[in-house]
Every structure is written in structure tokens, then in C-alpha cells.
Amino acid sequence: MAALRWLLRRYKWLVAISALLTLGTLLHISQRPPAVKLVRRYRSNEQHANMANWPTPLAQHWRANDEQLAALDTIIHNAQCTTCHSDIDWSHRQQRVVSAARTAWHSYVRDAFGHDDYFPLSHRGSNFTHLGIGYIVADVLDTLWLMGLQEEYKQGRDFLANQVTFDQRGTVSLFESTIRILGGLLSAYHLSGETDTKLLALADDLGSRLAKSFNTTLGIPPETAILRSDGMPFAGVCSTSESSTLQLEFRYLAKLTNNPVYRENVDRIIDVMLNAPKYDSLVPTRIDSKTGQFVGTEISLGSRGDSYYEYMLKQWLQTKQSEVDLRVEYDAAVRGVKKYLVRTSPRQGLTYVGEVVDLDNEPQFSPKMDHLVCFLAGNLALGATNGTHIRNAQLSARDRDDLVLARELGETCAHMYFDTQTGLAPEIAYFALSNETTNQITPNGDILVPLADRHSLLRPETVESFYLLWKLTGELKWREYGWQVFESIERWAQGEYTSLDDVMVEPPTRRDSVESFFVAETLKYLYLLFDDGDRVPLTQYVFNTEAHPLPIFSW
């Protein structure tokens, strides 16, 4: 003991330095997102109190009819032909998509390289923070890799690795930064061989900063994140989809970094949502972060609702179908969709998914369908087959019903394109409820589009579903539909690719804007739709909601 005291006195400077290092380590740890204790996952069957006000006619109980099931049987039979080929040169069409992506990238590099937002007509860019966060580059990087645009990929990768820092002041969208930047970085890291440590380090740094937003009472984050932030973020009433569409990215980041806190944070959000009362497993578009209860006045599979349902299925797929409660909740939600939201139009017989509005007073059905809802066709096909081609899938009666609905919705989304003057879909459509409706987009048609909703952002959801329906059923028409969409894009938005003001007039006025998801998603799905190979096997990958493929894994 005396010798120990002598050593401590003699080397007290070393002890002091060690204490400082320990204090520094503790301070560094305090900057990390706090670990949270997971509540025991429990899926509640409790109905929301407002369901007592629901009128009986809201429930329509959609089911596939005999004719639709017979048509599905024909598709399944035809899928057994493994030697059937199309005479169309799909590789040529695929290269047309590559050319479009190359043109879009080079225009961006010329005018606004590195900027977070791009204005193609005025040839300029802007940033979401003072220094910028690599928003566009990160989002399109894996598209460049998949298409074999190696010079363009290296240009984007080197910019991110050498010039982007998240250690800066500013607020960003937690949801968009997660699905576009974090998802893009993780996908590019994986597809390029999981050897690019700079991309992973950048993803880890961004993830650690965004994850501070989970430090709320129940873990439900605010919609914005502060890149340099500590303490308790303020969160009130939040978007349902934005809170429930962070899980694929943070769970994969947890796997890569061996940091379970990333997973615990986002799993906690789902635990809260599974516990909350619902409307036959349908959820309003808002959730109260303090009570964990769903609030809001509408149920929609469009804006602020869509990817809640998408990620419920995809989380189950991501971890090799090991988390059964997620699949049970997804299936229950699909039953709710069929019960309350699916309708068929009177003249064209188009199957569509509407909304339930005015939940707090007198709930009623609205025949409004966002373009965003078109994701559901592909999602239903994915859920029915679990990513396996129907020639090898074991389909239950429920799976067959879901596949029929998937095909019917795919047809309706195609009509939203092909029934307009430009061949491009509007942002939002309404469907006729009776034969007397006027202002249809085609004579005697059932699709109505108000003037305010006629713009096109060149969204991906419809071609995403075409891709999934083609890969899972082998039905050639989905490729043909995709080619028609691409030709319309080339006709009206080509050159300086831009969003369009009005798809109901020729020529449509161009907007001085283009979303990064045009290259990151729309062109990527078209490229994969025209691919004769299997670049991204659906039994090995799951796409996040921004079309970034992430590998399926086990913990």
C-alpha cells in the first residue's frame, strides 16, 4: 500500500492527465444520442375512441371478384414459362434511361454542383444550410453506381468524402435527411463493396447528429433536426409517416457500426405506435409525441400517411421476417384499407384508394388519391410474395386477394398518366362517385383533377410499382407502361429536366425546379424495370422509401 501511495505521488501528473482524458471521454459520450430502454413490444387491438362515430356505410369491404381471380390465375400460369421472351430490345431502352440520368447529372454539375437544391432553368443552386449537406449528391450516388456511371460516381463520392461536413450550424428535415442522405450513403457504401470507410464514417456522423432528435419524452422526434444540438428537443404533434419512416436506415446503420442505440431509438417509436389505439389498424396522419396517441382529422395513404404502412412491411422483410408483430400489423392495416378506403369508379371501373376525413366530427369518405398512393400497388405485391417470383411463391387466399388489388391499383395509376394530355400524372386526382360528375380529364372518364393539383414533380411511385409488379409476376405490360411514362418524360421534361406546371395542357409550362428523387428514384426504377438481369434481388434487398436498396440481414 505504501508503494502504491509513493507511485501516486511521484506520477500525480500522469493521474491528472488520465482523469482529464476520462472526463473528456465522458463529455464525448454525453454528446451521443442517449440510450433508451425498449418497452416490451405490444401490439394493441384497441380501437380509437372516435370509431364510435363512424357511420356504417363507410365500410365497403372490398374483395377480389371471380373474374379478377381468374385473370390472376392466368398470370400465374404464364409465369411458369421460363423460356418466353419479348422481341423488344429492353437493353436499348435501359440505355436510354442511363443517358437521361447522365444528362441530368451533368446539367447539375455544370450549374450547381454540390448544392442541396437545383434550379435548372436559371442554372443555379442553393443550400439548406450555410455550408450545404450534400443532399442531392448523396441521394443520387447509388443510382450512378447501379447504372455503371463510374466517373460520375467517383465525382460525387469524392465530393461527399472530402468536402461535406455535418459539423455545422443549421436545421434540417429529419425525415428527408434520413431517407435521402443517410439512406443514400448507406446504399452506396454497401453496393460499392462495403470498403469505403469514408462513406460509412460520414453516415455514422450524420446518424449520431440526427439521433439526438429522439431524446424526447416517448422518443418520437420533431420533424426538424439541429445538426449541432444537445438537450431535449421540442416535439409536439408530428407527422405519422415521417416518424415511422426512419427505421430501415437507422437499423442498418446500427448493424454496420455495431451501435445498438441507433436501433433502439427507432424501434421505440414503433413500439409506441403499436401500443396506440387505431381505426381498424388504420392511423391518422398525425401523432402526439407527448401522449403517443394518433391525432389528426384524416386517414390517408398519401402525404403524411403512406410510408407508415410501407415500412411496417419492409422492417419485417429487412431482418429476414423475424419480427412477427410487424407483419401482423401490416396485414391488419391492409384489411383496414380494403374495408374502408378501396372503391371502384362508376364508368371506367377503376379501383382506387381514397381517404377518410373529418375524423373528429362526422367521418366521411373522400375520393381523393395522391400520386404518392401509387406506391401501394408494388407494396401489396411485395407483401403477397415476400419478394419471391409468383412462379415459386406459395400464395394464400389473402396473398391472392392482395395481388389482385395490386394489379388493379397498378392499372389505375397507369390511367392517371395515360388519360392526361401529356401522358404524365398529376400530383393529386379525384375519382367520380357518380355518373353525373363533370370536369373529367377524358370524356366519360372518372378521373378529375382540380387546377391546383395538375402539376407533376416527376414522382417515382407509379414506376416503382410497375417495377415490382414486373419483377414479381413477369407480366410484360408493366414494362410497356413504364416505357410509355419514360417517353412522356422525354417529350416534355427532357434537356433541362424539370417539374411541370400542368399535365393537362400541351406543351406544359416548365417549373424552375427538379427534385433529387427524379434521378434517385424515378430513373432508377425505370432502369431496373428495363433490366433483363436481376441487379437488386428482392429476396436479398429492401428498398427504402427513397429507392435506396439496403441488404436484408440478421442481427
Descriptive overview:
It contains 18 helices and 17 strands. With 555 residues, the protein is mainly α. A hairpin with a 6-residue loop joins β11 and β12. It is globular.
Would you kindly provide a brief summary of this structure?
This protein has helices at residues 2-10, 12-30, 66-79, 90-112, 135-146, 150-163, 174-191, 197-210, 240-243, 247-257, 260-275, 306-318, 324-340, 375-385, 397-418, 461-473, 477-493, 517-529, and strands at 117-119, 124-126, 171-173, 224-226, 237-239, 286-288, 294-295, 298-299, 342-344, 351-353, 355-357, 364-366, 368-370, 428-431, 447-448, 541-543, 549-551. It is mostly helical. The strands form seven sheets. A three-stranded antiparallel beta sheet has the order 5-6-7. A three-stranded antiparallel beta sheet has the order 8-11-12, with no helix packed on it. A three-stranded antiparallel beta sheet has the order 13-14-15, with no helix packed on it.
Q: What are the main properties of this structure?
A:
disordered N terminus; single chain; 555 residues; mainly alpha; globular; 17 strands; three-stranded antiparallel β-sheet
